[in-house]
User: Fold GNAT family N-acetyltransferase from Hymenobacter jeongseonensis.
Amino acid sequence: MTFRLTTANPADAPRLTALVNSAYRGDSSRQGWTSEGHLLDGQRIDEEGIREMLAVHDAAMLLCLRENDELLGSFYAHSTGNKVYLGMLAVAPTSQGQGVGKFLIQGAEDYGRQHGCTVSKMTVISVRPELIAFYERLGYHQTGATEPFPTDPRYGIPKQPLTLLVLEKPLQSHRLNKQLNRFP
Assistant:
């Protein structure tokens, strides 16, 4: 399958909101392995939250599209100093297991490299061992640091106490894929 990587703009907010919520919450999320519905009630994000993320300086929401512009997945990348923070990897439940997530992770890491970052950082809910193992297979390691889970109900209402684990990966410089040169 051929994927295309691009960056989102504010007009993409409605379809991004639908994608992210379908990947993380509700009945449709149960078709994939990334569902958090058993851990949290409510939505994962709203359109306003997406627009806020899109407005952050030195950040981009990366989109994985099929040739027909079907949105398969998204991933947020925000460069700060020598680190690129990656968050909210979302893959359509029916497209999971097809390499979309790995494609987006590579694109986000390349985004970080292009912005001078030497480390990639992310946070993962501590009670998601299958997700942590996925990232570890891609070179990420647990730092031992933790962060509190957000308390803003617009990102979900925890059904149990939750903590975020900090994972990092050193970014080795390598030749960037030419399609990434359009990143701001």
Notes: The radius of gyration is 15 Å. Residues 176-182 have pLDDT under 50 and may be disordered. The beta strands are 4-7, 40-41, 59-65, 71-80, 83-91, 119-125, 141-148, 157-158, 163-170. Helices lie at 13-24, 26-29, 47-54, 100-114, 129-137.
